Amino acid sequence: MYNLILQQEGLSMAEINDIKTKVISIIKKEIDPDNMYEINSESKLDEDFGINSMQFMKLITILETEFNIEFMNDALLLTNFQTVNKIVKNIEKERSRN
Asked: What digits encode the pLDDT tens for the residues 21-65?
C-alpha cells in the first residue's frame, strides 16, 4: 500500500527500496544491534522493539542526517514513525518539501 502511495508521489520502486534498506539498516544498528529481531516494512518500533523516547529521538537525528532532511517538530510523534513504511513516507514527505 505504501509503495503504491510513494510511487504516485514520484518515487520509483528502486528509490523506495533504497530508502527502506537504509532505514532498516539504521534500525538494526541503533535499536537492534544484537540482531534479535526480524525487521520488515511493518515492524512496529514500540511494540516489536520497545523503543523508548531517547532511542526515538536518536533515530530521528540519524535519519535527518542520513537523508539530509529535517522533520517538522509537530510531526515528531512515535505514531508517525511507528513502522519502516511510515518512516519512508515521512522521509519522502520532507524531501519533497525541500
From this structure: 999 999 999 888 887 888 889 999 999 888 999 999 999 999 999
**How deeply is 20 buried, as exposed, middle or buried, from its count of CB atoms within 10 A (0-12, 13-18, 19+)?**
buried
Q: Which of 38, 56, 43 is nearest to 64 (CA)?
A: 56
Cell numbers 534479535 correspond to: 36
Please give the helix or strand (H or E) that residue 54 lies within, else none: helix 53-67
Query: How far is 34 from 93, CA to CA, in rounded Å?
Result: 31
Other CB atoms closer than 10 Å to residue 5's CB: what's the count?
Answer: 13
In one-letter notation, the amino acid at residue 2 is: Y
Is residue 68's pLDDT more than 90? yes
